[in-house]
Specification:
Blueprint: H1 6-13, H2 15-18, E1 42-43, E2 46-47, E3 49-57, E4 60-68, E5 75-76, H3 79-95, E6 107-108, E7 113-114, H4 119-122, E8 130-135, E9 143-148
Antiparallel strand pairs: 1-2, 3-4, 4-5, 6-7, 8-9
Bound molecules: zinc ion.
Length: 151
C-alpha cells in the first residue's frame, strides 16, 4: 500500500480538510485534490491555471489564488492556498465573535509568566511542537498562538 504523502498527513490534521463545501456558503466552490497537494492540478486532461480570487467581509478584502480548470471552471486549492483561506475563515469567525474561547489563570513562577492548556485541548499537542506567537496589539496583551508541528 502506498504511504500517505507528508502533505496529505498534514492536511488531514487541518480541521479545514473535514469541512464540507456547503459550510462555506455559496461564495466559494472548490475541490481539494486528495492525491496531490501542489498545483497545478490536472482537470479535463489539462493543467489548471492560477486565478486571483477576492472575497470581502465588511471592509476587509481578502485576496487569494486558486487553480482553475479552463474547461469546467472547477477550482482547486493546494495545501498552502487552503491554509491561507482557512486563516481568512478564522479571522471572519473572530470578527463575528464566534470563536471558542478558553479562559485561563495566569501563572507566575517568580521569573516567568505562563499558562496551562486545558486537558481537553492538549490531546493533539506534542512535547516537540513549536509555539508560534504573533503579537496582535501594541500593548502586548493580545496574541495569536499557533502550535505547529516541528518539521
Ligand atoms: Zn475540468
Amino acid at each position: 500500500m502506498k504511504q500517505k504523502s507528508k502533505y496529505q498527513q498534514e492536511l488531514e490534521k487541518e480541521p479545514f480538510y473535514n469541512l464540507k463545501e456547503e459550510e462555506f456558503g455559496e461564495e466559494v466552490k472548490f475541490k481539494i485534490d486528495k492525491d496531490s497537494f501542489k498545483g497545478p492540478f490536472k482537470c479535463h486532461g489539462k493543467k489548471t491555471g492560477l486565478i486571483d480570487k477576492r472575497i470581502s467581509y465588511g471592509d476587509i478584502e481578502f485576496k487569494y489564488n486558486v487553480w482553475q480548470c479552463k474547461a469546467c471552471k472547477k477550482e482547486y486549492l493546494d495545501f498552502e492556498q487552503a491554509r491561507k483561506y482557512e486563516k481568512f475563515l478564522i479571522m471572519k469567525k473572530a470578527l463575528e465573535d464566534k470563536l471558542v474561547t478558553v479562559e485561563r489563570s495566569m501563572n507566575f513562577d517568580g521569573k516567568t509568566y505562563f499558562f496551562r492548556f486545558p486537558k481537553e485541548l492538549a490531546s493533539n499537542l506534542h512535547r516537540e511542537d513549536l509555539v508560534d506567537i504573533k503579537l496582535l496589539s501594541t500593548d502586548g496583551r493580545m496574541f495569536l498562538v499557533e502550535v505547529k508541528h516541528r518539521h
